[in-house]
Amino acid sequence: MTKYSFILMTEEKDGFLEQLQELGVVDISRSVKPVDQDSSEILARASRAKKTLEFLESIDYTKDADAEAIARTTVEIDGDPVAFVGNCQSRLAELNIELAAARKQMDARLPWGEYDKKAIDSLSDLGYKVRYYIVDKKRFDQAWAGQYPLQVIEEDGKKVWFVTVTPESEEYSFPVNEVPAPADTYAAAKADVERCQSEIIACKAGLLNAKDYIPAIKEMRNGDLADLDRYLADSARGSAAEDYVTVFTGFAPVENDQELVASFDKMGVLYFKEEATEDDNPPIKLKNNWFTRQFEVFTEMYGMPVYSEFDPTPIVAPFYLLFFAMCMGDAGYGIVLLLAGIMLNKGWLKIGMFEGLGNIIAILGVGTMFVGTILGTFFGMSLYDAAWVPQWLKSCMIVGDITIPGIGTLNIQMILAMGIGIFHICLAMTVKALCFTKRFGIKENIATWGWLLLIVGGVILALLGIGKVLSPEAMKWAVIAVGGISALAIYIFNTPGRNPLINIGSGLWDTYNMATGILGDVLSYLRLFALGLAGGMLGQAFNNLALSVKGEGIVTWIPFILILVIGHVMNILLSGLGAFVHPMRLTFMEYFKNAGYEGKGAAYNPLKTNKD
């Protein structure tokens, strides 16, 4: 997002808002304040202090090439520390430019070597002219030395540096163009580089010393802001209406910058443009493909991400589809949902509460068809037991029980639900570690990475152990490595710089919360199996009830069909309600909690003439 700040006289605001409505891309907010020269000066001082504080708190020269020299240097700070920091910043920028130029001059003069510039210049008094040349090695002709008074100064295998010395009175020509004479010697350029480096060290040392004034600067800024509040309160009572200005703050997507700048310039409005930051709390506009965009409604229901968070929708979309399909668990019901979605899109079916949801209902229907087939259920019938289903399709179905040594016989679909839950939680913890590291830095998230290594690494090692991929010896050392590194991160280094005993206590508390929370979270995914099983059993019960009333005569077909239609419609509605709520619960409670998702952002809501 790009942040725009507009300053207008209050009487101009209505026309400006109408123009913004026509543009239709700026999310706007506003405030009204009396502004004059005195309040502007106070505000400017407070703003300079804020920027100075942000800069001082961010500088760190520990990794600087001259870190030791900077640390040894002491610079006295006289007068206003804010002005001192500003002068140092400006001078540092100038010195960096000077240093780059001096290094360039030093590199250019190096091949010419050291020489007495006064002696060279004195040759002109004797009537001689020195000309300087740089040519590629391939172009240099050795015969030139026999034709001209020529002296090679340097060659590096690619270029040749040489000079010629001829009387100024004689006619002179040479096959290549001469280059300007060195402005000074290599030693002079090197001295300039050393001078710039010395001044840069002094500037950086001064900035480092200025960090001691951070409390004083904060106190000065707070005082200015308090003065500004009192001043504005006083001036608000005595100012005339025309003394007021309206300050608008707006946000728009970066891709609209060029169009908006042209429009604002044409309006003649006073505005400032800058890149939005997290501190500005800009509105959020999600960017997803067609498939993922259908599931943005769930992200919006929970809360939009803040500016520095990841958009959870690309992960929510496939998992919500999978969870919904497992909860429905019936391929026949998926066909019904697909047809209902198509009819809603075409306008053949009109249900107010489902208006505009045709796409997502159709997508959920397709997912339910696929997953229901894999789970072997079609309108309450077992596809695995049906004679008309081809054998190749039966081999793809996940049905029946599985025996786990040391545990016993378990339903394979229950094991599948648990496995999906473990993977989902591990993915959430991975997203949390990456997102929090990006937002707050690795130092603040050592414990997060420790838990990620322990849980995800433990799951991977368990799978490798079950598959007998690693030898017992290798497995032992792998477990020791994962456990040892995780323990150090969780119990010792969870908060660097804090008392180790406090870190251990904090780690133990986190262990209790994590152990009880993760276990409950994983067990929560059993609902995927339970709801699918309940829906399938209820569908089968309606089928058996319908078959029990069907006799030999045609008349018995009427109650048979009525029971099937009414029963399966009721089952679809009940299963659909559960399949809607419970995957959303798994997303909001299990995934978002373990992913550390806050969802406190504001949705992008531009000012428009028509709201779609």
Strand order of the largest sheet: 2-6-1-7
**Tally of individual helices:** 21
Terminal residue distance: 21 Å
Shape: elongated
Report on the biggest sheet: 4 strands, antiparallel
Mean pLDDT: 82
Low-confidence regions: 233-243
Oligomeric state as shown: single chain
Radius of gyration: 38 Å
Count of structural domains: 4
Query: Structural class, from helix and strand content?
Result: alpha+beta
Helix proportion? 55-70%
Q: Count the E strands.
A: 11
**Into which percentage range does the β-strand content fall?**
5-15%
Structure description:
This protein is α+β, with helices and mostly antiparallel strands and 612 residues long. The chain folds into four domains: 2-100 and 196-279, no CATH class; 115-184, Alpha-Beta Plaits; 290-413 and 526-595, no CATH class; 441-524. Helix content is 59%, strand content 11%. It is built from 21 helices and eleven strands. It has a four-stranded antiparallel sheet with strand order 2-6-1-7. A three-stranded antiparallel sheet has the order 3-5-4. Strands 8-9 form a two-stranded antiparallel ribbon. β4 (150-155) and β5 form a beta hairpin. α2 runs antiparallel to α8 (214-238) and α13 packs antiparallel against α14 (358-375). It is elongated, with a radius of gyration of 38 Å. Mean pLDDT is 82; it is low at 233-243.
